[in-house]
Amino acid sequence: MISQFFVLSQRGDNIVFRDYRGEVQKETAEIFFRKVKFWKEDGQEEAPPVFNVDGVNYFHVKVVGLLFVATTRINLSPSFVFELLQRIARVIKDYLGVLNEDSLRRNFVLVYELLDEVIDFGYVQTTSTEVLKSYVFNEPIVVDSAHLSPLGPASLFMQGTKRMPGTAVTKSVVANDPSGRKREEIFVDIIEKISMTFSSSGYILTSEIDGTIQMKSYLTGNPEIRLALNDDLSIGRDYRSSVGSGVVILDDCNFHESVRLDSFEAEKTLSLVPPDGEFPVMNYRMTQEFKPPFRINALIEEAGALKAEVILKVHAEFPSSITANTISIQMPLPKYTMRASFELETGAVGQTTDFKEANKKLEWNLKKIVGGSEHTLRARLTFSQESHGNITKESGPVSMTFTIPMYNASKLQVKYLQIAKKSGTYNPYRWVRYVTLSNSYVARL
């Protein structure tokens, strides 16, 4: 059981607070934020997801910049609390459509009603969007897509000036169209998080994809649907020696409880009755070799007794029709680095550089990278001492974060989606959103 639940903004503002048992002091939100902001224990710069202060256990996850926190005095399973916090965030997003500070403040009455149904006296009752519909009666105040953050879900699918119809998924599952009609739509996303490690010469040392097929349903009557995947899809390590290079091989996968696998082995088709709201149809993992979306090359050379030069190059390996967004590249520098000056390539647009003196890090941010392009950064370093060790060993590794809409490295595809119940009001879009994100993308020096 949990004692309290609250949501904080990045500034530490208490947006939502619910005390279920009255056994923990009311100042926990302030104590938590002060501890997280100034965390310096165990040589770490960031607070761990669970810690104890004065006998109170604090569990927290960050969702779209918001801190979802639970407190308790008893010894609870961390994985249980983290899953609960994630599910609460998903339920709130299902009902509000958009999960951010503005939507929470505008819909605080609905949010508190949801929290009282999800948890009773610290005990979890249900986290099902569909079940909660029977108990929650407040209507959401719709937040216009113009209020979304530039890094929000709608902006991920902007390619030039063309807007994908997927922005409809930022609406509530209980809200109707302005015309009063029920929206009969269903959306499918394939979201992949890539982990890769490159050697100093650019060879791939480790590679892994953690993916999910995410679905959000607005269909009334919960009709049965069929989702068809690649015909050449194989699951399990045993397939590696018996199939060609073009086959999609997943190491393992698991499915939502509503999925039936009667036709999966023979036809690679999933049958399910989708519940209301957003849910993962299938989670999967892949360690088979795949083409990396980016190649990173890093070189650091001494340029005198107290100087050195860093050269960073990033090359986009995906097609020129695709654009990556919000790219950030970081590189730890020797602890005796005093200053860093930067030189970008001629005509560089939408790029910023910074030297974080507090933690001796070089940071290079690019607003977007078009497929097939290459970008270079030169950084000239000034050191505070002449006698130092191996500069290369004391620098790096180079880490990179990015988002690539409409691209997936595993080549897993949704061939088609069929709705068993024929209805002229159903409007499934004839496309699937693909998103590739960085989980751990590292290049050694």
Kindly describe this structure:
By secondary structure, the protein is mainly beta. The chain has three domains: 4-133, Beta-Lactamase, CATH 3.30.450; 185-290 and 407-443, Mu homology domain, subdomain B (Immunoglobulin-like, Sandwich), CATH 2.60.40.1170; 294-405, Mu homology domain, subdomain B (Immunoglobulin-like, Sandwich), CATH 2.60.40.1170. It is 12% helix and 41% strand. It has six helices and 28 strands. The strands form seven sheets. Strands 15-18-11-10-28-26-21-24-23 form a nine-stranded mixed β-sheet, with helices on one face. It has a five-stranded antiparallel β-sheet with strand order 2-1-5-4-3, with helices on both faces. A hairpin with a 2-residue loop joins strand 8 (158-159) and strand 9 (162-163). Helix 2 packs across helix 4 (108-118). It is globular, with a radius of gyration of 24 Å. Belongs to the adaptor complexes medium subunit family. InterPro entries: Adaptor_comp_med_subunit, AP2_Mu_C_sf, Clathrin_mu, Longin-like_dom_sf, MHD. It comes from Cannabis sativa (Hemp). Keywords: Membrane, Protein transport, Transport. This is MHD domain-containing protein.
What structural class results from the helix and strand content? mainly beta
Name given to the CATH homologous superfamily of the largest domain = Mu homology domain, subdomain B
**Range of strand content:** 35-45%
Helix content: 10-25%
CATH topology of the largest domain: Immunoglobulin-like
CATH domain class name of the largest domain: Mainly Beta
Low-confidence stretches: 146-167
Instruction: Identify the overall geometry.
Output: globular
GO biological process, one term: intracellular protein transport
Domain MHD: 183-444
Keywords: Membrane, Protein transport, Transport
Family: Belongs to the adaptor complexes medium subunit family.
